[in-house]
Amino acid sequence: MNVPWLTVVLLLPLAAAALLQVIPRTAVTLLKALTVTATAAAAAIVWTLVATMGGSPHSAGPLSFHYSEIHQWIPVIGATYHVGLDGISAWILALNAGVFVLGAILVSRRSTDRLKLFCGLLLLTETMTAGVLLSVDLLLFYLFWEGMLIPLYFLLANYGNENRGRATVKFIVYTVAGSLLMLVSILSLFFAHGVASGNLSFDLTQLLGGGLSKQPLVIPWVNITTFTPEQWAFLGFAAAFAIKIPLVPFHTWLPDLYESAPVAVLVFFAGLVSKLGAYSFIRFALTLFPDAVNTFKWVLAALAVVSIIYGALMALSQRDIKRIVAYSSLSHLGFIALGIFTLNVNGINGAVIQIVNHGIIIAALFIIVDIIEQRTGTRDRHELAGLERRMPWLYAFFLVATLAGLGMPGMNSFAGEFSIMLGAFQLHPAYAVLAGLGVVLACWYMLRLHQGVMHDPPQPRTEAVGDIRPAQGLVLLPLVGLMVFLGVFPGPVGDVTQLSVKQTTALAHGYASTAGPNFSGLGPVSPGGQP
Amino acid sequence: MTTSTVAVLSGLILLLPLAGALLNALVGWRLSRRVVNAIGTGSILAAFLVACVMLAQVVGAPDGAKSASAHLWQWLDLGTGGLRVGVDVTLDPLSAVMLMVITGVGLLIHVYSVGYMEHDRGIARFFSYMNLFIFSMLVLVLAADLLILIIGWALVALSSYLLIGFWYERPSAVVAARKAFITQVAGDVALVIAAFLIVVHIGTLSMPGIFAAAPSFASGGLLITVVCSLLAIGAFAKSAQFPLHTWLPDAMEGPTPVSALIHAATMVTAGVYLIARFHPLFDRAPVAQGMVACVGIGTAVMAGVIALSQVDIKRVIAYSTMSQIGLMIFAVGIGAYSAGMFHLATHAVFKALLFMAAGNVIHALHDEQDIRLMGGLSTNLRRTELCFLSGTFALAGIPLFAGFFSKEGLLGFGLTNGPGAFPWVLYLVGVGINVLTGLYAFRLWATVFRGEPQTARVYAAREAPRVMLVPVAILALLSAFLGLILGVWSLVIHDNFLIGVFARFLSPVFTTPASGPLAVDLSTGTAILAGIVGTLGSLLGAGLAARIWLQRNPDPSAVTARLPRALPQLAYNKFYFDEIYDALLVRPLVALARAARRVVEPRFMNSGVQTVSDACSELGAWVRDYQTGLIRDYASYMIAAAGVFVVATLVLVSR
Amino acid sequence: MTASANFPYLLALAAFLFSVGALGVLIRRNPIVVFMCIELMLNAVNIVFVSYGRFLNSEEGQVFAFMVIVVAAAEVVVGLALITQVFRVGRELDIDDLDELNE
């Protein structure tokens, strides 16, 4: 039987959201059960898909997919409903499914005002983010990319602490501004391709190779030579993605928003939504604008390194433990971005692996910070101490999450960060060395956070708190388990991603006139150290 | 020795401590103390037995087949042009020696801990961390892939962090733990970057692959020098060598068995192991080797001087550890790998012994660590003193004790093989270190056990229970006779080398075209001369110490007090390294972070966005004036606009 | 023949009607009269549509004229309902008094 599984993945949360509307708002248990069931069902499908995909992509072409569906959508302008799953999107989609299950479970563990609205928006967000990950058609992608903001706006504006209004508006306006630039780029790409090839299409696989002029644009009258149209279009995409990731200096929406958002939103917002910028960079910017990417990679990689170090420094100077985690996220997203801009196999694979790993880690960290805040009533580092004696289980979970967060070898993030830094080293050793400085700083602020909260003699606020409940432990356990498991066996992730990354890397270099001064692939590799 | 044997045995020896760690961590809090102790020590006992089997395998293997690797699973494979790492293990003479040291000394320390930690509530946590440490250390020495080695390398730092901060309600312990971890992470980063250089140059991280491809590095070239220097920096961080040494004394905040296991016997010597393991690379980088040798000997001198000035019993031993590891680093820096490894093994024995005996003293005096408040303990702690004395003799290199064989072995080698144009310079410094070692070793013994009791508590001191004495006694016997046995054995089988048996055992690992002689050849006169001079140095130090401190009321600062005032001040304050690093690294970084929060973020990062948003508000305020609410106004705007449009069209059309 | 001959006059008529309507919208204060003026403008537009349709020999002009008539009718319905409502809450019918649109 030929089930269009990708469409099922897309529609399932949407259908559940619709179904929610017929349930009376007083049937709280039913609402929660339906939300959790729907997200879990979607997760089950996605995880099965990912677990069974293996091997090479099924379709042919320079950019091929393991699963894909294509239908007419708006024939007049050549827009198609083209969705596809390949090695790059697979594990991120799996993460997507996972974090929404987590969000659903978290919201069902507590009493929330306007629960029905929350659940509906959560499910809607899942459809949109899954759409971003699956879209191959640029118009479809743009639809999901912008559509994602609608449920997110209502989630962020309606739930969370008192500062949420300003933070949400900042985020939305910032993101929309970037997205509009991207829309201009999409349209210019669309028309250029239409003129060059004579057929209209928004399909990524059709648009490869562009059609945009590579002649620099000259501002009339003043005769200043600027970038080429291709580069301008790339910058449009880059703006949208850099804001979403975010890269310094486009990051100012992040700390305020993370501080004010409720944890049930944060697990999927910090865990996934912010990674969509990184994913889209790999999927669209690298493949569509190889020349421009090769021109700008030095600057972008430098921005990524600045993000790493700047985020770490900011994390080092915060008192609010939630803001520390927020800035640590900025620093780690810098690593992911750095991996992408290396444009080599190691860096991009590392970035994909790290997207998955960091999603797991940041979700766990925010849950832990939330538990601490609930128990002690404060997020001030100076008022927290000595929780280890009171909360030994939380201590254990927090320890693993901290270690994973600081890139401890043997934990999941090491596999990603090592690959990323290796890729950065191949780009230019200085990037790897500076990123290494970021690792040392990460170690400092994460340990100070962990030790400050857990060790030293207890403070007034931490005198009489109890340990986490078994249910909370059950939420954290899979996350922590995955951190260790993926640290010991990162192979499965790499096996799936590497085939598709190879395609993308080839595309990012295929049209490039030069491969970049310092790029060198790894030499012949002896198999696995077998004697 | 087949691949599958290696795989099974390595799997077993790794899983046993890991299982112990997990069991105690997860269910230890529900189990009785007796069961927790049994799990904690039992897992290491089992691991020790497996290690013995592995040693037997290596010994029993025919010449030329002493090394075997096994592939456990594929860690990561990123395809062509990408990283490819397998979880591989190697069993060879070098790893076998390390296995014996780790599990053997580890087992004794675990048994000792049962007594030492008897009254501590967190015993399950303690054993869980200790087992985790043994596991990590085993990963480190068994790894056959540089990346897996790095994982083990970092895991030992983690267990060390956990154990230094074991008493987590002590702020000083918490800070010390963090300091140790961060310093070692800095070393890890150096190691990781060395790994990058290697993998980019030769395309693999597999250690057999690296060693096979070592000749592809230009000998003495810049690349290999940088690689080896980075590896050495990693080793320095782990082995507490200058300039990354400041964490080790602070690490004494941990329980004494931890100091014995991690900060004396095993983990801190991992740097020596690393350099010895990567000798095919170091042999091609004479500049890096010279740097290593100089840093080693320099640290040895510096730590020896500081040891002489300290008054905390554990810190004295910690600095002596630093000093002895400096000697080992010196040894591997001049290519005396077997000698360095032998000193590593004997040092593990006698230093663990000293720490545990010191632990007995501390235990008997209810956590008193200041040697100025001890003295005269020999009456009440007779057996402990005997053991301590055995360790002191070995440390000072008194002939026929274990330390004598290993230390004279490596110094003798240094006379002829030191770096640079004057190889004997470093040897002479080494003789000076022998004097220093004798001084501080016997100073410690004399001030703690001899003389008159300095406080009333000494009279109430009680000898440690049997569970704490037996492991110490075993180590005391080893430190008295290990060298002797091996030395006599070497003579019996007509090796002309001082520690010929040991060197011969390790020779499959260290015999490469590039490396020189393996140990001190007793058949040459210079080596004998070197040994004699070195021994005289040790005896001189010991004798001086006896003269100065064997009296009724010994003054611990007797020697340093006679020096110019600045010197003891410097030594007592550990040459102000902590303060210097604080001023040069910590404070600027903290200030930078604060500046980022107070200035950069609001003024620069936010201002761009804020400007745009303010401009929008301004524009809105300006437009608002034209929104009167009167339909008539709106209509006139429309009509005016239409008029403009018409006029514009007309103008454009007429052009 | 006649159609193209009359064409300029028809456009002039439309322009005149439109101007009258626009002037009325701008200077009259009674909303009903304003409405009538708007109708006048719309009808002026209709004349333009129809005459161009004739001139260019296509039906599209007439089609749009009908479209405009329908929209105008709908607009009148809404507008008159609003005016009635304003009258019913007891306000004077003076558009200069009705300035709540900016709130």
From TrEMBL, chain A:
Stretches that traverse the bilayer: 6-23, 30-50, 88-108, 115-134, 140-159, 171-192, 232-251, 263-286, 298-317, 324-345, 351-372, 393-410, 430-447, 468-489
Protein's membrane topology: Multi-pass membrane protein
Compartments where located: Endomembrane system; Membrane
MF annotations from Gene Ontology: NADH dehydrogenase (ubiquinone) activity; NADH dehydrogenase activity; ubiquinone binding
GO term, biological process aspect, one: electron transport coupled proton transport
Residue ranges constituting the NADH:quinone oxidoreductase/Mrp antiporter transmembrane domain according to the UniProt record: 135-437
Keyword Ion transport among record annotations: no
Gene Ontology cellular-component annotations: endomembrane system; membrane
Pfam families on file: Proton_antipo_M
Keyword check for DNA repair: no
Keyword vocabulary terms for this entry: Membrane, Transmembrane, Transmembrane helix
Family to which the UniProt record says this protein belongs: Belongs to the complex I subunit 4 family.
NCBIfam families membership: NDH_I_M (TIGR01972)
Listed name of the protein: NADH-quinone oxidoreductase subunit M
Lineage of the organism: Bacteria, Bacillati, Candidatus Dormiibacterota, Candidatus Dormibacteria, Candidatus Aeolococcales
From TrEMBL, chain B:
Transmembrane segments: 6-27, 39-59, 94-114, 126-144, 150-168, 189-211, 217-237, 258-276, 288-309, 316-338, 344-365, 386-405, 425-446, 467-491, 527-550, 634-653
Cellular location(s): Endomembrane system; Membrane
GO cellular component, one term: endomembrane system
GO MF: NADH dehydrogenase (ubiquinone) activity; NADH dehydrogenase activity
Organism domain of life: Bacteria
InterPro entries (alphabetical): NADHpl_OxRdtase_5_subgr, ND/Mrp_TM, NU5C-like, Proton_antipo_N
Domain NADH-Ubiquinone oxidoreductase (complex I) chain 5 N-terminal stretches: 80-127
Domain NADH:quinone oxidoreductase/Mrp antiporter transmembrane: 143-420
Keywords: Membrane, Transmembrane, Transmembrane helix
NCBIfam families assigned to the protein according to its UniProt record, in alphabetical order: NDH_I_L, PRK06590.1
Protein name: NADH-quinone oxidoreductase subunit L
Organism: Candidatus Amunia macphersoniae
Gene that encodes it: nuoL
Automatic annotation (TrEMBL), chain C:
Reactions catalysed according to its record: a quinone + NADH + 5 H(+)(in) = a quinol + NAD(+) + 4 H(+)(out)
UniProt keyword annotation of Ion transport present: no
Bilayer disposition of the protein: Multi-pass membrane protein
EC number: 7.1.1.-
Subcellular location: Cell membrane; Membrane
Segments traversing the membrane: 6-26, 33-52, 64-83
Entry keywords, A to Z: Cell membrane, Membrane, NAD, Oxidoreductase, Quinone, Translocase, Transmembrane, Transmembrane helix, Transport, Ubiquinone
Keyword Iron set for record: no
GO CC term, one of those recorded: NADH dehydrogenase complex
Pfam families per the UniProt record, alphabetical: Oxidored_q2
Main location, first listed in the record: membrane
Subunit comment: NDH-1 is composed of 14 different subunits. Subunits NuoA, H, J, K, L, M, N constitute the membrane sector of the complex.
Function comment: NDH-1 shuttles electrons from NADH, via FMN and iron-sulfur (Fe-S) centers, to quinones in the respiratory chain. The immediate electron acceptor for the enzyme in this species is believed to be ubiquinone. Couples the redox reaction to proton translocation (for every two electrons transferred, four hydrogen ions are translocated across the cytoplasmic membrane), and thus conserves the redox energy in a proton gradient.
Protein name per Swiss-Prot or TrEMBL: NADH-quinone oxidoreductase subunit K
